[in-house]
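Journal club prep, notes for RB
We'll compare a predicted complex against what the paper describes. Inputs for the 2'-monophosphoadenosine-5'-diphosphate case:
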Amino acid sequence: MSKQFAVIGHPIEQSRSPELHHAFAQKMGIDLNYAKRLAPLDGFDASMQDFFAQGGLGMNVTVPFKEQAFNACTVLTERAKIAKAVNTLWMQNGQLHGDNTDGQGLVEAILALGWNLAQSRILIIGAGGATRGVIYPLVQAGAQKIVIANRTLARAEQLVADLKDAVPNTELSAVELHDLDGDFDLVINATSASLSGDALVLPETLQFKYAYEMAYGKASSFLDQAKARGVPTSEGFGMLVGQAIESFRIWHGVKPNLKDFL
Ligand code: ATR
């Protein structure tokens, strides 16, 4: 029987992970089966444990179970501890291991675009789980200054307070979305505004060289404004492929080339 992998979530039908992992496996000459697993909203732990009890080797975790997956692990990577969320699970020596590959996926997608992160000044809009998950990998990739802008200032301030010890050499600060201003290399939309069809208004005075939208396949007023300024833009498909590649690397020890799958 092929090696068994799965992505667990609720809902799960929309997940692109099986097609990505099958494409990587074909390219790298690995035989595996990667399934979609729908867990009931109150049934993550039981479904996940059943998968591993049946001999499953690795599991990706998507909305809304990433925090529950974090809590279920006995061994966590540094970046998963900082993210407080896990999207990649595997068993090793009878212990459930967890990592979070979302931030590294974003970093690799950005680097594949040829955008520079060394010594960069980054503005991240949004202060939810998506933002928390990418700060540490962005810092490791060389970000010098990160400003978190959020509609609810207190949430951005809380995130800065939580993360500042983990990134002592990076300038980390919070600002209210309305007071957004300054000069950045990269601006990232990590809000769920595009997912819910809401507009995000960037002030004219805000300067940036590149714009990345974490959502993909959705109308994005954020990207429209960046494009109107003639700034290079990208949306989140590269990040999705990047996180899948990093999970694949953890499980199989070989790393597909991101650009082959965009
Ligand atoms: P995720 O885990 O995907 O980050 P989340 O924790 O629900 O999701 O966070 C959503 C983020 O999008 C928050 O920063 C939210 O701002 P608030 O903290 O003020 O709620 C932001 N967001 C959602 N809709 C928005 C909108 N229409 N305008 C601005 N920010 C929005």
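Talking point for the session: The radius of gyration is 18 Å.
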